[in-house]
Write a structure and sequence with these properties.
Its cofactor is pyridoxal 5'-phosphate. The chain has 362 residues and is an alpha/beta fold. Helices cover 39% and strands 15% of the residues. Helix 2 packs antiparallel against helix 10 and helix 4 packs across helix 9.
Length: 362
């Protein structure tokens, strides 16, 4: 009988061992009912036409999906007003971000991004072998400091991530400041404009991402069907990029990364009749966002201007305590320890429950 003298183990890459954990929004467990406002989800159930497409596709899950999702790519290209050669789909925009960095970042290259911003950025940067260069947000506004981000670019910079609207704070970049920023970025540096919350933007100064992309070959767009389209559970994201870059992203993507069911649901959600219903839901959520923000300001809160489907509370060291109080009152929110709390816009009843919680914080 053999005895192990010492425990053997396979070491992880140092970059992997040091990765920060991606913290998902809290889920309601067993027990008292909870309003889940922690994950920026669309609170509405899938539309009947989308559910029907999911049901039909479920009967075919013994077959591999279309590897390159050609029908979906065509629909997304038509939806976005670009050529099919410009579109790449993936298992959510988070997966696509990783594919993008794997396609263009060499070991030791720099990736510039704002902070605090989307928490997948430092994880994706580290896994790619790149060096993260973080740039603080504007003090007190939650806005990206684009001049500071431009100043952070060095000869080693390969990618700059611009999250608009910024998750978790909410403001969108403005067209004029983005143009000034892009003029300062070297043309061999990729600028990723992350537009996950595009459909919720009502700021008249926000840029037209497609127009920016068409005029700047080093700009690519990241978009998702998880938010406005309500397909968070099926994971469908897409990138819009110049053809050579799109082909590179496609080459490093996970084979068959978007399931057959997800492709069918996405195609159904892009049908014109379904689109009009989905955008009516988005408009209702924007109306609820306005009502919630006005209610909070009436309570005395000073908030960052949100163009997304959430609001941000800059609470600093009070963050975890306030999140625990919200949970005790039946509302799940998303705390970022030491920074603040992000609260998704839900249906009116959930929003009313949160407004009561926010009033108690005052």
């Amino acid at each position: 009988m053999l005895t192990l003298v010492e425990e053997a183990f396979v070491p992880l890459r140092q970059a992997v061992s040091a990765l920060p954990a991606y913290v998902p929004g809290a889920r309601a467990g067993a027990g008292a009912p909870m309003w889940k406002l922690s994950s920026n989800e669309n609170p509405y159930s899938p539309l009947p036409s989308v559910l029907a497409a999911i049901t039909r596709a479920a009967a075919e899950v013994n077959r591999y999906p279309d590897m390159y999702a050609e029908e979906l790519v065509g629909a997304l290209a038509a939806h976005s007003g670009v050529a099919v050669e410009n579109v790449v789909v993936g298992n959510g925009s988070v997966a696509l971000l990783s594919h993008v960095l794997n396609a263009v970042v060499e070991h030791g290259d720099e990736i510039v991004f704002p902070w605090r911003s989307f928490e997948a950025y430092p994880i994706a940067a580290a896994v790619s072998g790149g060096n993260a260069v973080t740039v603080p947000l504007e003090e007190g506004t939650g806005r990206l400091d684009l001049p500071a981000m431009a100043a952070a670019i060095t000869p080693r910079t390969r990618v700059v991530l611009v999250c608009s609207p910024n998750n978790p704070t909410g403001p969108a970049v403005h067209a004029g400041e983005l143009e000034t920023f892009l003029a300062a970025v070297p043309k061999d540096v990729l600028v990723v404009l992350d537009e996950a919350y595009l459909e919720f933007v009502r700021d008249p100064e926000a840029p037209d991402g497609i127009d920016v992309f068409r005029r700047n070959p080093n700009v690519m767009l990241l978009r998702t069907l998880s938010k406005a389209h309500g397909l968070a559970g099926l994971r469908v994201g897409y990138a819009i990029a110049e053809p050579r870059l799109a082909a590179g992203i496609r080459a490093v993507s996970t084979p068959f990364g978007v399931s057959h069911v997800a492709q069918a649901a996405a195609l159904a959600s892009l049908e014109p009749a379904t689109q009009s219903q989905l955008m009516a839901q988005v408009e209702a959520l924007v109306g609820e966002r306005t009502r919630v923000v006005e209610g909070l300001r009436g309570q005395g809160w000073v908030l960052a201007e949100t163009q997304a489907n959430f609001v941000w509370f800059d609470l600093g060291e009070q963050t975890l305590e306030r999140a625990a109080e919200a949970k005790a009152a039946g509302v799940l929110v998303r705390p970022f320890a030491g920074h603040g709390i992000r609260v998704s816009i839900g249906d009116p009843e959930a929003n009313d429950a949160f407004l009561k919680v926010a009033a108690s914080w005052r």
